[in-house]
Amino acid sequence: MNAIEFILAGMLAAATPFLLAALGELVAERAGVLNLGVEGLMALGAVLAFIVVYHGGGHFLGFIVAGLGSAALSLLFAFVTLGFRANQVAAGLAIGILGQGLSALFGKTYESLTVKGLPKLALPTLSELPVIGGLFVQDIVVWISLAATLALSAILAYTKLGLIVRAVGENPKAAHAIGYSVISVRILAIAFGGAMAGFAGAYAAVVYTPLWADGMIAGRGWIAIALVVFGTWLTGRIFLGACLFGAVSLMGLAAQATGLDVPSQLLSSLPYLVTIIVLGIISADRRLLKLNGVASLGEPFER
Amino acid sequence: MSVWFPASVPTLVRRERASLAAALSAPVIALGGAIALNLGLYILMGRDPVAVVYAMLFEPFLSWASFSEVLLKAGPLLLIAQGLAIGFRAKVFNIGAEGQFILGAIFASAIPVWFPQATGQWIWPAMLLLGAIGGAIWASLTAFWRVRLNANEILVSLMLSLVAAQLLNYLLLGPWKDPNGFNFPQSVMFQYDAMVPTLIAGTRVNVSFLIALVLSVAAWVFMQKSFIGYKLQVGGLAPRAAGYAGFKEGWAIWLSLLIGGFAAGLAGAAEVAGPLGQLQRSVASGYGYAAIIVAYLGGLHPIGIVVSALVMAVIYIGGDNAMVSASLPIAAVRVFQGSLLLAYLIAVAFVRYRLEWRRTAQRSLP
């Protein structure tokens, strides 16, 4: 397998944690809430899923527990920001630190243990194509994530529910005036974002790598937040961005496999460097950000 | 169909003026709340709460030896938090102090690593200055991305911290690794003149703690008395008003980040030229993130930050003690820090709002 085939085959799996977490953050931001705690929410989901799977609970239960656990922690964020109108930046950082601390606490006795991942499912015919065939051999979670991306895209764009979420983020006062509960919508959006971050962490810990180590999320949660900006709050672009980061995070492995003489630390920092560069390129076009950006993002709602 | 609603519900009502009493008591209440919450957690984990409380909250004060360690930890937290708070007040969220701290440590180490034989009283001051410049340079990348490219400073500064950690690893595993260091990822031990002189005999507290205190006074003068500090605060509170008054936003962002990076870099330099005595991986131990909590807990006020830096240092030293005597995992310190900030954010709401029990109208659903 050459480097390109290797990257294509692994790209979607590597992209999945970014994608899931970014979709969750997208919904929260669409509702006007900036939740910077994704890294901690992912870490908590990762450790919960790992503990469940390690003790024989199976992957399905692992994902459910991770989703519920991270949603619960994100509700704490909702409580502080919506209930007490706290600064969303500070509250997000607090949730991030708390989630990482809790994950290290729960995961202490599981450090460096491994579990079995999930089998890959191949699409017939397509998976036999040369070069790009690897794209069509993926585990079930990748397929579900792709379906979820399409579903979420349709819900946000075409349904009343999507319209309500967007209205609450765009103009909370108006949404309130026509009878929608801004606070309830935001609570649900935050919980959804938390659950998705939990799934993302679970995927990283029990499918993608599959092992537990403190700090294993390694900035993926932060990159997911950046992805929402890269994607200018649009599902399709977020998916493309996640694929880009999936590919970038594989490039290090591919480079090592081909025996390229580059310090491994440079390859490890590649995703962060690419984030910085892409963030600069996308943000420099202020019109693009304004066009799709969420008007009330990060602002507390007061009646 | 009629649905039961409570006769009255608690509602936050904006105060006409912020409550000073609430502002002063918020961090104390938050600390009490966080302690109670975490003790509950330790009890659930099957630890002896009395032993934990003793180790965490009393032991640090029981001997001069352990209290001096609290002062040693408080130094970098104090420096970094003072720098960050200036930015936070101007609504510039530099959360990359960890990276600026690491770059400060790297820049400062360049002198003893490249000139291990050099002697003279100039070495440690030069290292501190070089470290501060290194931190400021690292922060200037974020400032450039924010001002010129309009990129979010939270994400850029955080990413740069992750890059800085990799850069540190690279140096310690590669070009700067001590050839006689038994393959440990650390630099050579620094020469005597590269070490910051001890401030209190018999302890590890060094002159950098004094520098942190002096700079805290400088931060107070800058924020409360100077026109530039005033402009920064106006820019943070009312960006539009500041714009009309001719205060430029880009200028405020540059200044905030450079001050934050300078202070964090200085703290990083003081860490390698102080307690560590060489460049090690453990220099990146989360001071930059903890200092964010210190800054908020101190109400973003220079005097409050002096107190909150000491409190956070006690939590660190107490956590270390509890790890030994009550076998508490060190991650418990992170959990404590996170819950402390959350508790503070709840408590501080009562500075601007008061709780009122409002009667609800009896509603019926169709």
Characterization of this structure:
The complex is a heterodimer of chains A (303) and B (366). With 303 residues, chain A is mainly α. Chain A has 12 helices and 2 strands, in the order H-H-H-H-E-E-H-H-H-H-H-H-H-H. In chain A, strands 1-2 form a two-stranded antiparallel sheet. In chain A, helix 2 (38-54) packs across helix 9 and helix 10 runs antiparallel to helix 11. The radius of gyration of chain A is 19 Å and the shape is globular. The model of chain A has no long low-confidence stretch (mean pLDDT 93). Helices cover 68% and strands 4% of the residues of chain B. Chain B contains 14 helices and 2 strands. By secondary structure, chain B is mainly alpha-helical. In chain B, helix 2 (49-62) crosses helix 12 (302-325), helix 3 crosses helix 11 (287-297) and helix 5 runs antiparallel to helix 10. The N and C termini of chain B lie close together (7 Å). Chain B has helices spanning 20-44, 49-62, 64-89, 97-114, 123-147, 153-173, 207-225, 227-237, 239-244, 249-276, 287-297, 302-325, 331-347, 349-352, and strands spanning 8-14, 353-359. A two-stranded antiparallel sheet of chain B has the order 1-2. Residues 362-366 of chain B have low confidence and may be disordered. The chains are: A mainly alpha (303), B mainly alpha (366).
List key phrases describing it.
heterodimer, A: 303 residues, mainly alpha, 12 helices, 71% helix, globular, B: 366 residues, two-stranded antiparallel ribbon, 14 helices, 68% helix, 4% strand
